[in-house]
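Minutes, project huddle
Topic: does the predicted pose make sense with CU-O-CU linkage bound?
PN asked that the exact inputs be recorded in the minutes so nobody has to dig through chat later. Recorded below.
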Amino acid sequence: MNPRRRRWLLSGAAATGLTLGAGSAWWWRRRSSALAPLPAPLAARGLNPLRLPDSDPLLAVIDAGRHFTISARAAEYELLPGRPTRMLLYEVEHGERTLFNPILRVRRGAVIQAKFWNRLDQTSIVHWHGLRVDANNDGNPHYAVGPGEIYDYLIPVHNRAGTCWYHPHPHGLTASQVYRGLASFLIVEDEHDDALARALDLTLGTTDLPLLIQDRRIDAAEQFVHAPNGADRFLGYLGAEVMVNYTRRPVLDATPRIYRLRLLNGSSARIFRLAFSAGETRLPFHLIGADAGLLERPLPAQEAFLAPGERLDVLLDLRPLRPGAIVRLQSLAFDPMTLNAAELCITPSNPDPKHAAHATGVSNPSAANASAPITVPPNGARLDILPIRIVPGPIYQRSIPVSIATLPGIESRGARERVIELDHAQGRWRINGVEFDMLATPIRVGRGSVEIWEVRNPPNGMPHPMHFHGFPFKLLQRRSSPEQIRRIAVDARGLAAAETGWKDTFTIWPGEQVRFAVEFSHSYPGEQVYLFHCHNLEHEDAGMMINVRVVPPRSDAHA
Ligand code: C2O
Ligand code: CU
Ligand code: CU
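Predicted holo structure (tokens), as shared on screen:
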């Protein structure tokens, strides 16, 4: 082991470095199980039934409160029958079945014992986004393992009920590995969740639906195109169309009842401004959960932003709709507030200014490696995500509960304040003036302490979805927000409805300052190192990321 790396090792190192067979990618084809055929009119419009948990080996649900092996591998998967797509997938053997990107379901208090086997031809590591784990189990890129290697995870689940997810986190490779298919849900359940499911008669997979939303460029041969040019690497790689649960042009059949939708933005860089509409009318919904778990009570909303890494837990009441009606989950137009092509071109060190055209929605020449060029809508463009077709169903007479969960508070009066400055220089994004250094921990915090962080984003940049590993936080205030954010604020603090809950990722818009309170408490001994980073995956890969070292009180400093 490299001695520099040893310096960083914390208690109970988990990488065994065991080699199991050749780690190089080997292509292997998986036939998707039969998806229900669509009625002729929908099929004629090129729509495909939304992939739901258990309708297919991809995104099947498994109980994760036990021991299992999860490998990452290259595979050809028939996302559409007869049209294999080359992907990277997580694979789990489960009884007689081989499952891919399984939705991991776990009770609060259970223990996940996962053996990660890297069968890719490059390094990787699994990060459990949102789980409150110790540094060894967090999937920090420092612990990435090489081809053929194993990494053992042992994770007691301390989270409140909510929707987490898992994805790779090797430094510099995260964007492409996620884009090629490595991402899925990790759902934590507890007694509040049980009560909600009982009250509304919700079942995971049929009426409680995890929806992984990702934009992608897909060529005529049904292959994912990941070919970021210089401008893409600076601004983030945008897709041309939106897949939901790895379904291209999806459609969902739903009955007139209440559904729970767990919305996850697994895109590299695209931000969604989500709304449901039926014809010209907006269909209101209720927010019941944010990144880090259920809210205290359902909050009515008409729209919500969802940036890469964020989750929104939503109740959608379809009872006002008649069979035959279509409700559309859409992303409404918004101002992306992103450096435009002209500004990029005058940046002398921009690696490839000629290609900045994609920021204005012009088709990207570098993506045209299949027959036809792919036209990429800019961030903020109006997009259709998922049409929901209402079909007849049984009478449903439940109503949305008044309260859902008890929300822990946080006492931040007198807390230490810390300023975090985001900026860019010479075509590089930075946090507090530096780029990521795997071995440096520029921020040190005391275990058990509460801090208030004020993140500042200068006006001449772009929005950044900032994410904290290990510790959920409470947003305290948004300052100098753009109009499109002020307009949806629910209180004098400038926060949107879902931001009143516990979060692990939030977007900071150009010119804004966002303040949040975070308590660095956990039961893990010794020093622990976590990440604070931008979840625009190109920014993350380029080093818009910083280590935060949690230092124990002096009494157990030598633990
Ligand atoms: Cu989902 Cu460090 O990320
Ligand atoms: Cu994370
Ligand atoms: Cu960013």
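Observations noted during the meeting:
- The pocket of copper (II) ion (ligand 2) is lined by residues 127, 129, 467, 469 (CB under 6 Å).
- Residues 191-200 form the longest helix (10 residues).
No decisions taken; revisit at the next huddle.
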